[in-house]
Structures are given as structure tokens and as C-alpha cells.
Amino acid sequence: MELIKNVNELSEDEALDFYENMFNALADKIRLKIINEISKSPSKYLCVCDLEEKLDLKQSKLSYHLKKLVKVNILIPEKRGTWNYYRINEEQIQVVLSEGTCCKIF
Description:
The protein has helices at 12-26, 29-40, 48-55, 59-71, 90-96, 99-103, and strands at 45-47, 75-80, 83-88. Strands 1-3-2 form a three-stranded antiparallel sheet. It is built from six helices and three strands. The chain starts with 11 loop residues before the first helix and ends with a helix.
């Protein structure tokens, strides 16, 4: 899924699909914890190894959740050596959690 800057430019069905995918990805306590941990990081990046430790999750389970967040462009991965680091895509979060979204979809 690509970054959507203006949901109003989408058709009604496309906009509903966009919100369905976004809110589905955010509707999980583990994924919210991942986002929270990354946002609390001083560098705003966290390595998979750090997330494993902070969330006490096995790498396979963590990878599943990270993949869902990357797929909808909420997290941006960056490979550094053998580890993946993740940061929050602030632009995408702003689109999803804008005041317009809370009050109306269209």
C-alpha cells in the first residue's frame, strides 16, 4: 500500500478499503505496543532485536506483526547489516488519524 496524502482524492470504495486496511493493522494490542515503543525511542528507530526484548515476543510472532504494519505503510523498514530497523511513517499516521477521519470519512 502506498502513502495516501489525501483520502478525498480516492473513490468512495477506495477510501473505505484504505481505512479498513489501516484500522485493521492498528486494531491489535501488540501492533500498538510496537508503535508505542518505536515512538518512545530517542532515535525514533528500533531494531527487531530491541523490539523482541522490550515486548518479550519471539522473532516469528514479531515479524508477523511488523509485516502487517509495513504493508499498510505505517512502519518503514531499513536494513542495517543483518538487522532490520523500523521507524514510524508520520505522514501516513497523520492521514489516518486526522481530525477529518474522526468526524467523517467523506
